[in-house]
Amino acid sequence: MKIFLYTSVLIICLQLIITAQNRIEYNGRQLFLNGSNVAWVNFGNDIGPDQSTPNMTKFQQIFQTVHANGGNSLRLWLHTAGTKTPQFSPIASPDGLVTGPGENTISDLKKILDLAYQNEIGMMLCLWSFDMMRTSNGSAYTGRARLMLNDTSATMKYINNALIPMVEALKEHPAILSWEVFNEPEGMSVEFGWPTITSADIPMANIQRFINLVAGAIHRTDPKAKVTNGSWSFKATTDIPTLAKENPREILESLSDEQKEKIEDVVKAKYGVNLSAEKILEEFSSNANNFNYYRDDRLIAAGGDPYGYLDFYTVHWYSTIDGTIKLSPFHYPYSFWNLDKPMVMAEFFMVDAFAIPYTELYQNLYDNGYAGAMSWSWNGDNPNSSSNTRTIAAMLDLWQQHHEDIVLNPKTGTIYIFKISPAAIEKGDSALITWELEDGTTATINGGNIANSGSLYVNPSISTYYELKTYGDNPSTSSIRLEVHPAGRIFSFAALPNQVEAGARSLLKWNVAKGGAVVTLNEVLVGDKDSMEVFPTQTTSYKLKTVGDVTDSSTITITVLPSLQVNRTLNKPVWSSSNEDNPLTNNPAYAVDGDLSTLWSSDYADAQWFKIDLVDTFAINKIIIKWGSFYAQTFRVGASRDDKAYQLLLTDLNANGGNDTLNNLSVTSRYIKIMLDKRATSYGFSIKEIESYGLRVTTGIDNSTDVTQQIFSLSQNYPNPFNPTTKIKYSIPVGANCNSPLRLKVYDVLGNEVATLVNEEKPAGEYEVEFNGSALSSGVYFYQLTSGEFISTKKFILVK
Description:
By secondary structure, the protein is of the alpha+beta class. The protein is built from 13 helices and 44 strands.
């Protein structure tokens, strides 16, 4: 009994320790910070002497929107560059010392904090940014900032004359989540600095000393206050080695043009400067080993104040700048970094992170033991224009799933989840209602009492509303509607294809809401969900008619054309190497649907492909490619009878979009493949329509085209990303030079060979090889197939 009791107590204690390590204490609650960055409404000028600040209307809009969508925290920059606050001695004064917080600084900040508290938002208040040493500020401003950072007596002038009055006046304000000393101070440092943006002349030792003295002053003035510091990278916040040293030149050579453009766009948006990818990598790449400058003992050693420590860490990460999985919080759990305090990811873009979808970033950080997720930024300077929308969706989803770790002020009656799936059914089917309420809530659905969480299957015969009513501190009402489709409603009726030659096959398919409706096709009784093969010899119309709860009808026409006028690709099976993350363009079938108002687009990368199965074999004499706005600069077209050996029909090394027509062809083919080698824009490849024309082959037709123009094929690995094994398919065409050794090798991002999978002569055929990456670290790798003059390279991702 004693052993059991001791074990139970130990488990409870361990759980409390783990919770404390990955949550931030705020107003008596252990919270996961679910929020974003304001980070300013007016850069460096949201508080202080300017009578137009703060813009309370804008702040109210931000706070209200974030709270309404499950957010609990926001990060706000205060002094920033020091051009407005705090108050310094006159700019011409030789001492350049801080004399006070600045007119209206405290009252303005209190207005913002009061408004945040009304909206149940906790604020992380960032005092300074690397911008204080931005060379574009001018030497007068950077000179006094440099003095304050490097000279202890000048630092104490700021602390005594500005910081302490601010903290004292706002002491224990319920909206203050924490004070933050710096935003990315490494950017102005000697060790990591960015000389095209800042002076890059402040030693990290002086930055450590400043943080120590500021943190100590805050802790003494308000013992309940928390202090953090916004580091630009894990490179300066962990002792765990990842990328010990970097070679910017090697990294640059491993990047595609599109990756370089992304890096340049991000830096322009984030830091307000136009730099080349080469210059960015020179400045943002570190040649120092990872080192946690902000550990307690190191801060105290630098400044000497035993109270000058951080209560939790905050780190920023941008995939297009860091450029590696090895520094990614989304690929390594909090425990990996071996830190002694909670860790909040306080800046990151809401974009895919090395194969992790942006929709999963907040949940990923929560699951991996971090203490918060705060995207950049609400101010709209993210190059991704949908940043706010994506952040809202991520915050709301996390709040619904983990409200117990997010809500600042739990109130009975609060509805966290109330949904129904699916939202529409047919007669006889069921839907599932799910709800989650605050503990202690009394509630009903359509008058029936329910528990605080649960689910219920419903199967009404007509469309029905379900109303959830709650009672408590926050009484609420929410309604959802379940649509029940009336029997006889026609969902779809199609002919595939709708243009054929006389006597050729077309497939009619239809889907009608079930429930007892009478369904006829050209007056013949048929089922409600069925299909029928037809072989019209002339243009023919087919009428689908239903009689049930509703009467409905639909007519389609199959047009019979001369054989050489039939588009052989229309509505045929298609495959693509990738699809854009956009429901309007992510279906390759859009490129063969006969509709020029639709189009297919690939991922934003070179080396893509698009393949069509014509189902039957045809003697093709013409192929037309109708490009969207984002066309290929370099592409090839191949044709094949068996999808193994392809005959090369066209290589265009300088395409210009519009329509490309291949006339006067003489090739017998069932498959058409377009190799999209290089993009003309920074976006993906987009195709509105692909058409092909020719006669159906009823007897064997010898393909006399020169077989030496056939091409090899290297497929994308599957699965991708993978851990630790994946499969790679490749094919060798008939007529290839089988005396030339074929090599399939794997390389890392620096071009180092890490594995040889194939190195031998092989006959024509299709092959598959398995690659095991268990001996490698997580990251981006490339596999390359070579034989004679043929070279094909593809990227794949190992995630452990």
